[in-house]
Design goal:
319 residues; Isopropylmalate Dehydrogenase; eight-stranded mixed sheet; four-stranded parallel sheet; 35% helix; elongated
Length: 319
């Protein structure tokens, strides 16, 4: 029996409907997975009409007696709009959060195995700009502090210890305990889901690891965390100087690079792999994935959106 996965339609002012349509047209590539959309039926239908996309949609409210193979099923979430590509900020926020809450309800009642969310503009969705989907879901499921953002590619994965905070606040927000919890979470995920024990490489915070000076974060926080992780039988190397980490990871057999802040690992990773990756949240009581790209406002209605990352997100559930 195929697993059923809910895909949150996400930000209405985006390329999301386009990439949903493109993956649905290639649904033969889904192995052991059925999908449906959590979003506003009329909005998606209107956006398809504007983009001249011909796909059979069907609105549903009950999971019984529905065929998720023939038509793209939409579990309808209320939204009032006039222009399908221009939604008021307040309405958009309520719509997206309600979509997530609906997905969590389906997971709790075991209607779905996991969820995928299409991209959102977090500044317009969440009141606290330091919160993204990762933190939102962790708080909703009593998993806060256990969660980890993993940008996954078969060749290399990366994860930042701090996520959506200002650079000047990073030093005060990295702790030995936080590093240990994040790596333990990711290690458990790799063993359970991918069936192998990963080799971690932990980056230092400062250029050249601040030459390991006595009062550096490398000596006070990062090295003690690595020592503790090694005692826990986790394969970990470091602290590694960030300026060479992405050059030498293959030679060192590293599967996952852990950075101290968002752009320390996300920037080099995307330079190497562009958007050939998916965003996974570990540490939750279910599997959550999203495409590793933004809302693409600059290419809305231009038929230029690449659906690869969304397709890879769906395929990951068949592993």
């Amino acid at each position: 029996m195929k697993s059923l996965i809910g895909i949150i339609a996400g930000d209405p002012e985006s390329i999301n409907s386009e990439i949903l349509a493109k993956v649905w047209k290639n649904k033969k590539n889904f192995k052991n997975v059925n999908i449906f959309v959590i979003g506003n039926y009329n909005l998606i239908k209107s956006q398809f009409k504007v983009m001249k996309i011909k796909i059979d949609l069907k609105k549903f409210r009950s999971f019984q007696n529905n065929n998720f193979k023939k038509k793209l099923m939409v579990y309808d979430i209320p939204l009032i709009f006039k222009n399908p590509f221009k939604i008021k900020k307040k309405s958009k926020s309520k719509y997206v959060i309600r979509s997530f809450n609906t997905a969590l309800k389906f997971i709790k009642s075991k209607k779905i195995k996991g969820l995928i969310n299409c991209p959102i503009n977090k500044k317009e969705i969440f009141k606290n700009n330091n919160i993204g989907v990762t933190e939102f879901l962790a708080k909703k499921t009593d998993s806060y502090g256990k969660e980890a953002m993993v940008i996954y590619n078969k060749k290399l994965s990366v994860s930042p210890i701090t996520t959506h905070i200002q650079l000047k606040k990073v030093s005060k927000n990295i702790t030995k305990n936080k590093i240990i919890k994040r790596i333990v979470s990711i290690n458990k995920f790799f063993i359970q889901k991918l069936k192998f024990k990963p080799q971690f490489g932990v980056l230092g915070l400062n250029p050249h690891n601040d030459e390991f000076r006595k009062n550096s974060e490398e000596n006070k926080i990062i090295k003690p965390a690595i020592s503790k992780l090694k005692k826990m039988n986790i394969k970990v190397k470091g602290p590694i100087s960030a300026d060479t980490a992405f050059v030498n990871f293959n030679k060192k057999g590293i599967n996952v690079l852990i950075g101290m802040y968002h752009d320390q690992v996300l920037g080099p990773f995307k330079a190497l792999y562009k958007f050939n990756a998916i965003n996974i949240t570990t540490g939750l009581p279910f599997l959550r994935i999203s495409p590793d790209h933004g809302t693409g406002k600059d290419i809305i209605k231009k038929n230029q959106a690449d659906p690869t990352s969304l397709m890879d997100s769906i395929k990951f559930f068949s592993k």
